[in-house]
Write a structure and sequence with these properties.
Length: 190
């Protein structure tokens, strides 16, 4: 079985980059191990794929159909951290990457790094623009929505102001009626 745990620290959480770039994912280990496995989860293909295993002696084993020119693992001298280098990036490399160690017949997984590769990174709209791949868009929308949650947001103060205005409009005739009623009573008694 697979288990997420605190013995592995994986950074960064998200990578957004362009086609043909290269990137690096770091995995820090807090316990004795024989080596580190790297996996990729593809949301599109609903597939968990073994990429590469690197043992403490520096020997590397690749998964089937995994390009050795694309993936390489670098270990720190102390073997307390490993980094996965991915080059010649392409939108087909999109997915969540996990570092993992084997412990008592279980695979312990890192927290995962979501990689999004786009032909063109989102830019402020100018004239015509090449369409951006589907992955980074929800992330952008989320961050915009998060910034609108402040107290001064029009989403908050417009309905609030309308409510207060409506309340005042309802109170004016009532106050006027009460005033006339009090005056009539006052005139009657005096």
């Amino acid at each position: 079985g697979f288990y997420a745990n605190l013995l592995l620290t994986q950074t960064p959480e998200h990578i957004l980059t362009q086609t043909n770039n290269k990137t690096e994912i770091l995995c820090e280990l807090k316990k004795e191990h024989t080596g580190v496995y790297w996996y990729r989860w593809s949301q599109e293909r609903q597939h968990f794929e073994f990429l590469v295993f690197s043992n403490t002696l520096g020997k590397t084993t690749y998964g089937t159909n995994v390009g050795q020119d694309k993936f390489s693992v670098h270990a720190a001298r102390s073997h307390s951290s490993y980094s996965l280098h991915i080059s010649h990036l392409h939108p087909s490399d999109n997915g969540t990457y996990y570092c993992s160690v084997s412990q008592s017949s279980q695979l312990l997984l890192g927290s995962g790094t979501q990689l999004s590769v786009a032909d063109a990174l989102p830019l402020p709209p100018k004239t015509t623009q090449t369409p951006v791949s589907k992955k980074p868009v929800p992330w952008i929308i989320k961050s915009k929505a998060a910034s609108k949650k402040g107290l001064c947001s029009p989403l908050v103060w417009i309905p609030l102001a309308a409510g207060v205005l409506l309340l005042l409009l309802c109170l004016v005739p009532t106050a006027h009626r009460l005033y006339r009623l009090r005056r009539r009573l006052w005139l009657r008694t005096h």
